[in-house]
Specification:
The chain is α+β, with helices and mostly antiparallel strands and 440 residues long. It contains 16 helices and 16 strands.
Amino acid sequence: AGVPVDVDEFLAKFHDRVLPAYFSYCGGCIRVLVSEGMAPGNLKKVLVLNAGSSSLKFKLFARSEDLNLSLESRGVAERIGDLKSALSFCDASGKQKNISSQLGDHQEALRTIFKELKLSASDLFAVGHRVTHGSDKIYKASRITPEVKKIIADTIPLAPLHNPVNLLGIESAEALLGSEVPQVAVFDTAFHHSIPPEAYLYAVPLKDTAERLSVRKYGYHGSSYAFLLNRAAEYFHKPKEQLNLIICHLGAGASMACIKLGKCVDTTMGMTPLEGLCMSTRSGDIDPGAVLFLVNKLGIRKTDQLLNKQSGLYGLSGFKDMREVLANVEKGDRGSELALSIFVGRVRKYLGAYLVKVNGNLDGVVFSAGIGEHSSPVRERICEGLEGFGIELSPKRNLSTKEGEISPNRSRVKVLVIPTDEEQQIAMETVSVVTGLGDG
């Protein structure tokens, strides 16, 4: 797996265990391609599925002989179960195709995807499924078995909007592909398994509430953080286990993670994705007493809607998109200025807290996702005045860089923009699980 080894020693140790196998040797490293499906000239594809309540997103990856993944096609089936359902997809060059088709359920949607892509089970090495919640029972990508499906089902009370449809996507793929193609579940919560109890527990009764009712922090955006940590290690030219990072996944759903020596030690989202930063329509942190007050005045359902769908940037400014917020800040709109200030202020608050968690020994700050990757004004506001902590932006790099370092060469802490790719991470972990060459 790209680790320097003695060739004769490796072959003597493993030749009886990985036959048939194919080896490629380069620069003191051995890469092992295990199983017929991974043999040179016979590399099958990896399909990644992300099932929503009425949608099915997918990415199809081709695999090269050096085990790299390249995007071959991506798309989404929308309004599943509706008379106006449709499938849209494009290839790696960006060529788009839109199809209006009545898709009665997720299985029919998947069947249509296979038909349009001229794809069959024999073309696939494996299918990776994005699953939101694995509770505290699953802490790495896992081959889908009846036991794993039961844990996903048992965790529905903790993720009632997502786990049921994630399970539906798995069952649709199983019905279409049978046992011929391995299926792997990659959990959003798994990356945060390394968070210690003092950071994931709330100060509520330990046995009756935290343990019996599973009320604790879980964290989300795990596949994004795993991808960004690996990419950051490439920028620093050192193993991820040597890195202290603060990663900012700033999109419509926004969160941050504190990485200490390659492990997540804290994150902003909690038991649900509602905790933490101000988001597009979510409030983020709010006094639990205020929530109780709202429930008493509005009821549970209206309070749920208010905090998840009507708050955040939208509740403060009337705009869900940060680009619109920034445009209206320029026009002097008070609500937009408040929304921007609260969004930035919340990020800076956690940035300070996470600096303490790594004892001030920070290697880098990483910005990613829609806002983090594309909004130079937001990045500028977040990093303003932090030179004393070693965090500094280059105005020119901040404005022009799409990917890479945006801090000046003199900055003690590197500030990076790295586009995330959760589906590619899911594909990589899927291959890792199926081949047994990694821990997922």
